[in-house]
Amino acid sequence: MGSAVDRRRWWGPDDLIGGSLDEVFAAVRRVVPGLIIERLSVTHPGDDDNVYFLGDERGPDRVQVDTFPDGAPPFLIEADDRVETSDIAEAIAVICAWLGSDDVRPGDDFA
Questions:
Q1: pLDDT tens, residue by residue, 74-101
Q2: Which residue in 51, 54, 61 sits closest to 96, CA to CA?
Q3: Which of 20, 53, 81, 86 shows the smallest number of beta carbons within 10 Å?
Q4: Looking at the 3D structure of the chain, how many domains does it have?
């Protein structure tokens, strides 16, 4: 019987995709201490690897974020609920809220 293969790789602050998702992750990193981001690794170049798993010291895989290629919106954000948005500030607020940060509200300035 084969063993399960973990198809994720750690996504650090210097890893950039070149799209709006970079802004989302940078802002979430400033608000959520100990943020862990992992990106899905695929075996075939044509497979969708625009899937990210976010967590913190309380556990990995607490929030999943899917994007279009190159980190372009819309962002599909999933945990116990599901939100689809093209608004960067809303994506940041939802992710931070779902990771337990009470310091972020929609409309906040994340510069």
A1: 999 999 999 999 999 999 999 999 998 7
A2: 54
A3: 81
A4: 1
At 109, the amino acid letter reads: D
Question: pLDDT of 28-59, one tens digit each?
Answer: 999 998 899 999 876 655 555 789 999 988 88
Domain that holds residue 60: 8-98
Burial zone of 94 (CB within 10 Å; 0-12 exposed, 13-18 middle, 19+ buried) = buried
CB atoms closer than 10 angstroms to residue 1: 2
Instruction: Examine residue 3 and state whether it is found in any structural domain, yes or no.
Output: no
Half-sphere exposure of 109 (CA within 13 A, CB side): 1
pTM: 0.80
Which tokens sit at 36?
């862990």
Query: Is residue 2 domain-resident?
Result: no
